[in-house]
Amino acid sequence: xxxxxxxxPAVSCIIGALLTLLIAYAVSFDRSEINYKNLFFILCFETIxxxxxxxxxxxxxxxxxxxRLTKTIGTSAHEGIVFLFGALGSQVxxxxxxxxxxxxxIIIFFSALVAVLSYLGIxxxxxxxxxxxxxPLLGTSSAETACAVAxxxxxxxxxxxxxxxxxxxxxxxxxxxxxVSSLSMMSASLFAVYxxxxxxxxxxIAANFMGIPGSLLFAKIxxxxxxxxxxxxxxxxxxxxxxxxxxxxxxxxxxxxxxxVLAIGALLLSxxxxxxxxxxxxxxxxxFFGITNFTFQxxxxxxxxxxxxxxxxxxxxxINISELIGIKFLxxxxxxxxxxSGKHLSERGLALxxxxxCGFANIAxxxxxxxxxSTLAPDRRSELSALAWYSLLAATLSNLFSAYFVGIIL
Length: 410
Fold this sequence. Notes:
This protein is mainly α and 410 residues long. The chain is 71% helix and 0% strand. Helix 7 packs parallel to helix 9 (172-184).
């Protein structure tokens, strides 16, 4: 079967981008409240951002410097890894690459580094500065803009701490935007991890930046509102209780990173094992009906195939990307990135797949986001639960829109 959309890939990506916008418009809570002027400015900003990062020398230099910094962090972490694990920490030995020893420990170091930068006020300054510039451009409130910017640096729950003083008084539209931005982007602590796994760093970083306007675009289509809560100056505080000194910040960050590593390792083990078991079950059931080698991942690929085929890549790549989108949606992005190297994608396919799965838009993370926000604003738990599936849809559409958008200009 030939993917006819691959004949004119830019056109197919335009169709895909329009499809994501149409789906968001179809499920909008109140189309009459949509502020098309704001959406236009958000879309213009995403266009400028995409072209600026991917098609200009300044953008390429910026991405190269961020990648260089990320690799420096990974190299620094490697010193601790080799000291702790000895020969197991070396990738040149006969056993080669071992995920548990070569990737997961980087998260611990990065978590400690973030804690140090937070203690010194550097992260807070960056978030305040960027959100101050973006708020008038995007037409969004200080609180939701700051959370979206923070999410491009931090995890799905840490970003909400930036605006914890305003969660209780936010409008429902702003609260929804916070949920969507929390699911649409990744934590910067995972950049080095995925780059170690062979994911192209420039597209990984660009995808996270594009998630800022992208998440707000789809949030404001699905849950629009002309009303804003008190648009106060945002007080940023990345940690719920600021460390009393630098050493305490390092210890606190390291312990947080350790908990995250244990959770990630356990989830990867469980999800990959469950997927393998489902694959074997589907093959057994399929063979009973005379269907050979039909796996669970094949089913997921077919379910998400419309989105994969509209990427404008050859048929097999489209199916593989569809599988990755489905795995990310049902499990998480780390499982999808762990599978990406085995899909043998072309340079274009790998780039578009990176944008499509670069985010926390999965079923498990919805619960994490709701739990994080409701801890800070317990009175809003019922609102959060009611918006859960809509926020997951909006974040997924935001990731797909970024992929299609980049597919038009690549």
